[in-house]
Each structure stands twice: as structure tokens, then as C-alpha cells.
Design a protein that fits this description.
about 325 residues, mainly alpha, about 60% helix, signal
Length: about 325
């Protein structure tokens, strides 16, 4: 440890005491300045708002009453007047007074509401009319039997077969639909025919078309089932008898065509089954082997073309 000279050691203590006294003096001088608080100057008082005194209410004035209606009795002017009785309901009859309601427009044409109602009704019964009064049933049955003869229960699907049968029906019945449109629908829309006259004119072409492809035996069958006498002429056959007789004839013709289609494919199944039996392959299903040969035969003879041509010519 380094030792200081005796003179310097004697001066060190008074200097330290002097520095301590100076620091205490500085702290005392700064304390009053820090403790001083600046307060804002006092604000003058705000006067209260002056509220005006309420005005005096206006004096009540009664509403003058309306004068009473004049009495029809001059001797008793205060007698009450009876109200007028309501008008009686009018009879919903046509202009001729026959009890019919007029649904046509001002120029004789049917109103838009009637046309819309007839259109919705036609769309509702269109599937039934398509099945009962057209060639759709026969074409659809023949196409389904052809698919089954090929051992293809789901190819082509039902939607494809139904679409093909639908457009073939439109193709076959195009002339009939044209006659109905020109002879009944357009005159009715122009106001030349009433609804009953348009229905009679439209039933004529479709009835003549169905009579061409309905057997007399089927008409006689439905006539006897209805307990009616045999009609004198084909035109006297009512639609309630003609439509089921036409459907029976169509199903009969469809089954005959389907039987003819089944024969060549049945021969292929017999040949394949005999070949498998002779080779001792009894566990192998014959359909797996005969299916390619059926499809090959159907393509070689242009099966779809032959069937569609035969169906169209059956209505010629």
C-alpha cells in the first residue's frame, strides 16, 4: 500500500468537509424552486342563461259541426235519413244471357290468362298423351327388348332410349301435329274457333291416325268391355274406346318385332353354350363368351339402322 506524505493527508479531510457543505447548500437552494406550484388564475363566474317566461295559451275555440243533411220529410226536419240499399249481385251470364262466361279478349281472341292456363294444362297431361296417343310406346318397347337381346341390361341407359323414342315419335307424327296446328290451334288463337270447335277439329286428325294402326279385334274387345254397341263406321268410335284399343295394338306389334330381334341372338347363345359344354367348361357363364359375338353381329348388319327403319316404315 502506497503511503501519502503527512502534509497532504492533513489537507484531505478539510477539503472533503468543504465539498460536503457545498452540496448541502445547493440542495437547500433548489428545494423552494421545485416545491413551488403554478396555479391558473381564477376565472370570472359565468352568468346563468335567461329563460323566457312561457306565453299564455291560446283560448279554446270549438270546431263548428257540419250541417246535417236535409231531411226528405219537410214536416219532421230532424228525422234521420235511411242509407241507400246496396245493389243486388249481377247474374254471371254472357252477353246473350245464356249463363256462359266470356273468356275471350275484346277482338274474339283468347286472353293471355286463358292461353297460359291451357299451356300449363297441356304440359301436365303431355306425358300421358305421349304414351297413349303416339308411337312412343311401341318404339320404346322395341328398343328395350333389343338391349335385352344383346345381354346389355343397362347399355344404352333408359334416358338415351327414351330420348331416341321421343324424337322418332315426333318424326313419325310430324304431319299429324302439323294438321292439328293449322286446323285447330291457330284458328283458336286467331279467334275464329271457340274452345269446343278447336277441340273437335284437333281430335279429327289424331283419331284418323290411330284408327290406321288399331286392329278391329282390339276395338271390338274394348267396345264389348264398355257394354256398347259396335259402331257403324270407324269415325263413330269414341276416344275413350279407341285409345286403349290403340295401346293394345301397339304393344302387340312391339312384342312381335322384339321376338324377331331375339332369334339371331338366341342362336348365338345356344352355339356358345354347346361349345362350352363340349369342352367341359360348365362353370364359365356363356354370356361372357357370347356377348362379343352378339355385338359384332349387331354392328356388321347395322342393327340400329335396321330397327329404326323398320319402326318408321311400320307407320307408313
Amino acid at each position: 500500500m502506497r503511503c501519502l506524505p503527512p502534509r497532504r493527508a492533513a489537507l484531505r479531510f478539510p477539503l472533503a468537509l468543504l465539498a460536503f457543505a457545498a452540496g448541502v447548500l445547493l440542495l437547500l437552494l433548489q428545494a423552494p424552486a421545485a416545491s413551488a406550484v403554478q396555479f391558473p388564475p381564477p376565472q370570472p363566474p359565468v352568468p346563468a342563461p335567461v329563460v323566457p317566461a312561457p306565453a299564455d295559451p291560446a283560448p279554446f275555440q270549438p270546431t263548428p259541426e257540419a250541417p246535417a243533411p236535409a231531411s226528405p220529410d219537410p214536416l219532421n226536419p230532424t228525422a234521420p235519413v235511411d242509407p241507400a240499399p246496396p245493389a243486388p249481385p249481377t247474374d254471371p251470364s254472357g252477353p246473350d244471357g245464356d249463363g256462359s262466361v266470356v273468356i275471350n279478349g275484346p277482338n274474339g281472341t283468347p286472353s293471355s290468362a286463358v292461353v297460359t292456363l291451357l299451356g300449363i294444362t297441356l304440359l301436365t297431361v303431355a306425358p300421358s298423351l305421349l304414351l297413349m296417343m303416339s308411337s312412343f310406346t311401341k318404339i320404346f318397347v322395341v328398343l328395350v327388348m333389343t338391349r335385352n337381346a344383346l345381354s346389355l341390361p343397362s347399355i344404352p341407359p333408359n334416358q338415351v332410349i327414351a330420348g331416341l323414342a321421343l324424337f322418332l315419335s315426333f318424326f313419325i307424327m310430324g304431319p299429324v301435329l302439323g294438321d292439328i296446328n293449322s286446323g285447330a290451334v291457330q284458328p283458336y288463337l286467331d279467334g275464329d274457333f271457340t274452345f269446343q270447335e278447336a277441340y273437335t277439329e284437333a281430335a279429327g286428325p289424331i283419331q284418323q291416325w290411330m284408327l290406321q294402326f288399331t286392329r278391329e279385334e282390339d276395338i271390338a274387345l274394348m267396345t264389348r268391355a264398355a257394354g256398347m254397341d259396335n259402331p257403324a263406321t270407324p269415325e263413330d268410335v269414341p276416344l275413350t274406346t279407341l285409345i286403349p284399343a290403340f295401346m293394345i295394338s301397339e304393344l302387340r306389334a312391339a312384342f312381335i318385332i322384339g321376338f324377331v330381334i331375339f332369334i339371331p341372338f338366341l342362336v348365338i347363345d345356344l352355339v356358345v353354350s354347346s361349345a362350352l359344354m363340349s369342352m367341359g367348361m360348365m362353370m364359365l357363364p356363356p354370356v361372357i363368351i357370347s356377348l362379343p359375338f352378339k355385338i359384332l353381329l349387331f354392328i356388321l348388319v347395322d342393327g340400329w339402322g335396321l330397327i329404326v327403319t323398320a319402326l318408321i316404315r311400320s307407320y307408313a
